[in-house]
Design brief:
The chain has about 280 residues and is α/β, with parallel strands linked by helices. It is built from 9 helices and 8 strands.
């Protein structure tokens, strides 16, 4: 829509009659702070809206906070484009804070420098999440820090490898999380990986206890096709001279198991021959 002042928000009554509207483009309309109140109301009213383009307007400062209030009431809204607006430090701070903790909004599109400085952190801790939708990872490629702790995650998508700028990942206290995908090893900048309170099987606990460096090396090996080898300590208990050492030597050489298989094979063959003879 193109609705320049003085009727910068005259489209609002019309839009309210379109409850199934999914995408709305009102870019380049010189929408200023006064009109943002109406836009925020419209966003909260259009429950089917998933994307809105507000780029190339005149939104700034406190108006961003008003806009966030409207976005917070629309749980289907996924993408908001706010490029080329004079948002200023105050406006960017409001948007950054909102983006960080909002569960439903996947992407706020800002000018590149602003994205880097204000949309680099996502905190989704304590949201009762069982999984993160696979399609959001590409939208979060600019993140430096991601907190998914204290949830009910059962898996981590291999698409997380899209977060190439990520430096810190907190997955702690997800007791249902058993496995980390080898694709995590593809995150070149990841330096901090928090896994306390997880019941992981892959990587095993002894690797997790050594820290991020060893975890990443383990996952890198898995990604290259290496297999996990499990070892267990064995102790032979008994009196002297009863054959403990002999048993150990046989087990180490594997001759005990080969002999057992050969004996079983010979018995089967012998039984087969007897049957043919009869």
């Amino acid at each position: 829509l193109n609705s320049n002042p003085p009727s910068a928000f005259s489209f609002v009554p019309l839009m309210r009659t379109l409850p199934n509207l999914a995408k709305l483009d009102i870019s380049g309309n010189s929408i200023s702070n006064r009109a943002v109140t109406y836009v925020a109301e419209l966003i909260s009213h259009l429950s089917s809206l998933t994307s809105i383009d507000l780029s190339r307007n005149r939104i700034k400062g406190e108006a961003a906070a008003i806009l966030c209030q409207g976005m917070n009431l629309n749980h289907n809204l996924k993408t908001v484009d706010l490029r080329s607006n004079p948002l200023g430090y105050e406006g960017l701070k409001h948007l950054g804070s909102f983006f960080t903790t909002n569960l439903h909004l996947h992407d706020i599109i800002l000018d590149q420098a602003d994205t880097k400085n204000f949309l680099n952190h996502k905190d989704l801790s304590n949201k009762s999440l069982t999984k993160v939708p696979s399609h959001v990872w590409s939208s979060w490629s600019h993140l430096r820090k991601l907190d998914l702790s204290h949830n009910k995650l059962t898996e981590i998508s291999s698409r997380m490898a899209a977060l190439t700028h990520l430096k810190e990942l907190n997955l702690s206290h997800n007791p249902l999380l058993l496995t980390l995908p080898p694709a995590l090893a593809a995150l070149p900048r990841l330096k901090v990986l928090k896994l306390e309170g997880c019941n992981l099987r892959t990587p095993p606990k002894n690797i997790v206890a050594k820290g991020t460096k060893y975890i990443m090396e383990f996952l890198r090996d898995l990604a290259q096709g290496h297999e996990t080898t499990y070892r267990v300590k064995v102790m032979f208990v008994g009196q002297e001279n009863v054959g403990k050492t002999t048993i150990w030597r046989i087990i180490r050489k594997g001759s005990f198991f080969r002999r057992d298989r050969d004996k079983s094979h010979n018995t089967t063959t012998s039984s087969g021959n007897s049957g043919n003879g009869g």
